[in-house]
């Protein structure tokens, strides 16, 4: 493990003003996204969509890296350049999703465990050869009556720690993503409580597995109410709860936190990130690793039509520029189109 190289990659990924595009949607997720615009999810349509995003002029002003899916890291742009090469040439670091999704945790209905540790080392070696320099692993935690259980949290924490140790052994930076889902009617305080518990257990396991904390990034949810809760939180409330939560659980050695957007609209995620950065940037870099919140407007503009590429890229560039401002605490709602 090259600790110097790992620290350098992690710090570059949370470069001030920049963040990460999560373009690692699984086959099922991208199919749902395409269904929303009436487009069939074929390999060529998926390739065209990712090329539209990645070749947007100037997008590297706002993005430090891109998380790719297994299919995407093997694909090339229309000019023949592999996507990983294209990203490198634009100054963005290629990353790769390495988990294999979730399955039911045996004997624990409604709770999930993430799979993918089998043959992970071999896959990491291949992905490094294809150009990836960081990885992502996602665990999902649901809030409902009597869940999450301690068993679920401990099981996922151990798996994430084993993942992180393996990734670092192959000289790549692990992004560790324990996501507390928005599904449900729970209050903001409940999200904060559960997320704190998740992260505390995670860092206990990371320490036990001797993971180099200066060479990781944490991707976590913001502290927001469940989407079925009629009481919506203002950005300042989200920011206060989220930054207080981080101060309780994230060691100072960690270079940064890259927030997921977790079902928020692009404007909501941008406004919340902005307030978080106003309050909490004194200890870590507080960045983003958004998927839908960065892509949604571009996807709806593109709709699979080559004639819409330019306008879609403009929409993508505009949203990325706003999220970059939020990353600095300089966004204002009147900047929305």
Category by helix and strand content:
alpha/beta
General form: globular
Q: Roughly how much helix do the residues carry, as a percent range? A: 40-55%
Tally of helical runs: 12
Domains, number: 1
Identify the CATH architecture. Alpha-Beta Barrel
Query: What can be said about the biggest beta sheet?
Result: 8 strands, parallel
Poorly predicted ranges (pLDDT <50, ≥5 residues)?
none
What is the fold named in CATH at topology level? TIM Barrel
CATH class: Alpha Beta
How much is the radius of gyration in Å? Answer: 19 Å
CATH superfamily, please? Aldolase class I
What order do the helices and strands follow?
A: HEHHEHHEEEHEHEHEHEHEHH
Task: Kindly report the spatial arrangement of strands forming the biggest sheet.
Answer: 8-7-6-3-2-1-10-9
Q: What proportion strand? A: 5-15%
Number of strands: 10
Through-space gap between termini: 46 Å
Mean pLDDT: 95
Can you describe this structure?
The chain contains twelve helices and ten strands. The chain has 337 residues and is of the alpha/beta class. It has a single domain, classed as TIM Barrel. The strands form two sheets. The chain has an eight-stranded parallel beta sheet. It is globular.
